[in-house]
Amino acid sequence: MKLILFGTGPFAVPTFENLIHSDHEIAALVTRPIADSGKRRKTAENPTRDLGAEHGLLILDPDSINTEDSIATLKSLNADLLVVCDYGQILSKTALATAALGGINLHGSLLPMYRGAAPIHWAIYNGDTVTGVTIIHMTPRLDGGPCLIKVETQIEPEETTELIEPRLAQLGIDAVNQSIAMLMQWDRQSEIGTKQIPSQATKAPRLKKSDGRILWSRSAVEIKNQIRAFQPWPGTFTTWQPAGKPEQRLIIHKATVVSSERATSTPGEVILSNKTDLIVQTGAGQLALNTVQPAGKKPMPIADFLRGNPPAARSTMGLPPETKTKH
């Protein structure tokens, strides 16, 4: 089968590499354009481009895939199927129609749950214990096509987005292969896959830096999930006041739930601070900070942090309630 690959981020790389080494013909790789400055971006920012270059693929990087010129280019390649993963643009109905079988998309959730740009992050943020990947037969509606293949996996209690994302990417390899096999046998007239139920859909919007701010009025469990979810970006952070110094930002890399009981102190209040422990009150329960990163420093164990930056007991972390923003 003749394929065009659409991808930008690392989630696409294992599946695309497998397809490149398969019996399928890869007509082109479509990816996001290099930064406007014209300078080469870091490899980590577009690993699919590097993969395509390594294998000598035709690389297309239009500002918009849905312009007349882009559509004409896609048509000229005469592909059987478009394979999309972690691309960053929505393909129009016209773009999808340039391939005989339309397109499939590898998505990092069990659709219709977590439609959008950050499905893995929001699943962990919400405390889910199961996630997976879904292959959909694409429609112009975002993540709205029928599901061809779903593969489930457990989210372990301490797993972060940074840990689970590559595992899900590996699950996508066989799921995409199975979906392509289904479409090769499809009569192109009968319904294929399982329709999504719109009422069950949830959103997974693109992350913003402000999503990382801790609202200490949330529970200890919820804040720990936030810390797990937003690694490596945007990170999870609060503010704190070192003795005799201006207020600073503190990134929390790891924390442990000490209790989940209702608040007995003001959320954000430091209820214990000694040489080895820093425990903060939340809206429900207490959170022990294990690994932190002060402004301008590298991540460090809490004991190292406390040696030079002992927050006073009963001091308060975070912004005043009236200046906090809701997620």
Mean residue pLDDT: 91
CATH superfamily of the largest domain: Formyl transferase, N-terminal domain
Summed up, the helix count is 8
Total of domains:
2
Give the strand order, joined by hyphens, for the main sheet: 3-2-1-4-5-6-7
**Any guess at the CATH architecture of the largest domain?**
3-Layer(aba) Sandwich
Distance between the termini: 44 Å
CATH class of the largest domain: Alpha Beta
Q: Approximately what portion of the residues adopt beta-strand conformation?
A: 15-25%
Q: Looking at the structure, what is the overall shape?
A: elongated
The CATH topology of the largest domain, please? Answer: Rossmann fold
Structural class: alpha/beta
Q: Can you summarize the main beta sheet?
A: 7 strands, mixed
Q: What's the total count of β strands?
A: 13
Give the SSE order as H and E letters: EHEHEHEHEHEEHHEEEEEEH
Spans of 5+ residues with little confidence (pLDDT < 50)? 38-44, 321-327
Q: Helix coverage percent of residues?
A: 10-25%
Question: Rg, please?
Answer: 23 Å
Describe the structure.
This protein has helices spanning 13-20, 47-54, 68-77, 93-96, 119-125, 161-184, 220-229, 302-308; strands spanning 2-7, 25-30, 59-60, 81-85, 103-107, 130-137, 147-154, 237-240, 248-262, 270-273, 278-281, 284-294, 300-301. It is α/β, with parallel strands linked by helices and 327 residues long. The chain has two domains: 2-200, Formyl transferase, N-terminal domain (Rossmann fold, 3-Layer(aba) Sandwich); 209-323, Methionyl-tRNA Fmet Formyltransferase, Chain A, domain 2 (Roll), CATH 3.10.25. The strands form two sheets. Strands 3-2-1-4-5-6-7 form a seven-stranded mixed β-sheet. A hairpin with a 4-residue loop joins β10 (270-273) and β11. α1 packs parallel to α6 and α5 runs antiparallel to α7 (220-229). The protein starts with a strand and ends in a 19-residue tail after the last helix.
